[in-house]
Design goal:
By secondary structure, the chain is of the alpha/beta class. The protein folds into two domains: about 5-155 and about 365-375, Rossmann fold (3-Layer(aba) Sandwich); about 155-355, Dihydrodipicolinate Reductase, domain 2 (2-Layer Sandwich). The chain is about 30% helix and about 20% strand. It contains twelve helices and 14 strands. The chain has helices spanning about 15-25, 50, 60-65, 90-100, 135-140, 155-170, 195-200, 210-220, 285-295, 300, 325, 360-375; strands at about 5-10, 30-40, 70, 80-85, 105-110, 150, 175-185, 225, 245, 255-265, 270-280, 315, 335-345, 350-355. The protein has a six-stranded parallel sheet with strand order 3-2-1-4-5-6, with helices on both faces. The protein has a six-stranded mixed sheet with strand order 10-7-11-14-13-12. A two-stranded antiparallel ribbon has the order 8-9. It is globular. Bound molecules: NADPH dihydro-nicotinamide-adenine-dinucleotide phosphate and aspartyl phosphate. Aspartyl phosphate binds near residues 109, 110, 213 and 357. One of its GO terms (molecular function) is aspartate-semialdehyde dehydrogenase activity. It comes from Sanghuangporus baumii. This is Aspartate-semialdehyde dehydrogenase. It catalyses: L-aspartate 4-semialdehyde + phosphate + NADP(+) = 4-phospho-L-aspartate + NADPH + H(+).
Length: about 375
């Protein structure tokens, strides 16, 4: 794709939980080389190794130790083409908007732009076709942007749940109802996160905003694309074929989904139990569901994205798997693990899914989304 060249990238929120994963994953990436780092004004002006509270078991990579952290202003990242953002949500919205306006390709982990009707909410193993909306997103600016755009990741729990749901929809048609209960790792709350006295020897049955996010985001991710030809009230903005312009929120087959979210004393890895009812009657058997999950393939792998897992869904037969400690590093945390596929006496099928919240739930997804954008010609190289 890049014929051996590397694109200069910037990392915003580089000192945080997600930012540290970016630093670690980008150290030997074939497409990207980290050129600039951004964080809060508290960290700006100092070498990275002085301001980061490094929490990964590997040492701080030598390539990044001496880079002086900058304030998150587009002019400080002038040589970069791609921006990866792990910014705190209290500041991410405006900063990412400013970088898009300055013609950067922005890949965000934060919630701020996920609901924008022209911004793809991209789980790279599921809906890369939603990148088709980017030309429309660019056309909304005055003057239209030539290179800038924003793509967001999903919430980390949404990501784990929606991968097997997408596999089931692809194999068996629309889903009617989904019940999800999550057991979420403490790294999901960032650093320093939840106090140790609250989480040790305990489970906290509440994560602010999380249930609503899962219930809403799954619908956008599994939904189709609406073109300007579908929307007769608006004139075409772009010449030629019908312009993909927004997402249909699964409108053609309304899916009822309810989530219950819990924080558990695990470092990394969000586990979820999922029960599904299909529209199709009779529903598929547990064995048919297992086969569909195992056969699930991704466009990211087909397009040879370097971060795409060989097997996006690894299926466990053992009755006590997947488990966070044993299974979160499967394929460097870039896939998901599913187990305990069985009949549900209330809905149709139930299973357990595990996703590494800081990898496929965060930094790995952003990086794969950027790889997909290159493969689809949205980033000029
Ligand atoms: N942790 C996870 O599993 C996941 C997190 N996310 C999302 O990713 C984002 C980052 O999360 P996480 O890494 O956990 O958060 P952290 O709290 O660990 O890190 C936040 C980062 O934002 C920076 N920051 C804070 N204030 C400002 C400011 N005023 N200007 C510029 N930078 C600022 C911090 O810099 P400094 O060190 O200088 O304060 C730090 O680099 C959040 O939006 C989160 O919701 C999404 C999916 C999963
Ligand atoms: N809320 C998630 C992590 C997160 O930051 O989610 P979001 O990116 O949707 O705000 C957790 O606590 O595990």
């Amino acid at each position: 794709m890049l014929e051996g060249r590397q694109l200069k990238v910037g990392v915003l929120g580089a000192t945080g939980t997600v930012g540290q994963r970016f630093i670690s994953l980008l150290g030997d990436h074939p497409f990207f080389v980290v050129h600039a780092l951004g964080a809060s004004p508290r960290s700006a002006g100092k070498p990275y190794e002085q301001v980061v509270q490094w929490k990964l078991s590997q040492p701080i990579p030598s390539y990044v130790r001496g880079i002086v952290v900058k304030e998150c202003k587009p002019q400080n990242f002038a040589d970069c083409v791609v921006i990866f953002s792990g910014l705190d949500a209290s500041v991410a919205g405006d900063i990412e908007t400013a970088f898009r306006a300055a013609e950067f390709a922005v890949f965000s982990n934060s919630k701020n732009h996920r609901r924008d009707p022209d911004v793809p909410l991209l789980v790279p193993l599921v809906n890369p076709h939603h990148l088709a909306v980017i030309p429309y997103q660019r056309s909304l600016h005055s003057p239209p942007l030539e290179r800038g755009f924003i793509v967001t990741n999903a919430n980390c729990s949404t990501t784990g749940v929606v991968v097997p749901l997408a596999a089931l929809e692809r194999a068996f048609g629309p889903l009617d109802a989904v019940l999800v209960t999550t057991m979420q790792a403490i790294s999901g709350a960032g650093y320093p996160g939840i106090p140790s006295l609250d989480i040790l020897d305990n489970v906290v049955p509440y994560i602010s905003g999380e249930e609503e996010k899962i219930q809403w985001e799954v619908l956008k991710i599994l939904g189709g694309i609406v073109t300007d030809a579908d929307d007769k009230t608006k004139a075409s903005r772009l010449p030629g074929q019908p312009t993909p312009k927004t997402f249909d929120m699964h409108a053609s087959h309304p899916l009822r989904i309810s989530a219950a979210c819990n924080r558990v004393p695990v470092l990394d890895g969000h586990l979820a139990t999922v029960s599904v009812r299909f529209v199709r009657r009779p529903p598929p058997s547990p064995q048919q569901v297992r086969e569909a999950l195992e056969q699930f393939t991704t466009e990211a792998r087909h397009l040879r994205c370097p971060s795409a897992p060989r097997t996006p869904i690894v299926l466990h037969d053992a009755p006590d798997r997947p488990q966070p400690r044993l299974d979160r590093d499967y394929e460097k945390g870039s896939g998901v693990a599913v187990g305990r596929v069985r009949q549900c006496p209330v809905l149709d099928i139930k299973f357990v899914v595990l996703a590494n919240n800081v990898c496929i739930g965060a930094a790995t997804s952003s990086i794969m989304n950027a790889e997909l954008s290159i493969a689809k010609g949205l980033i000029q190289v």
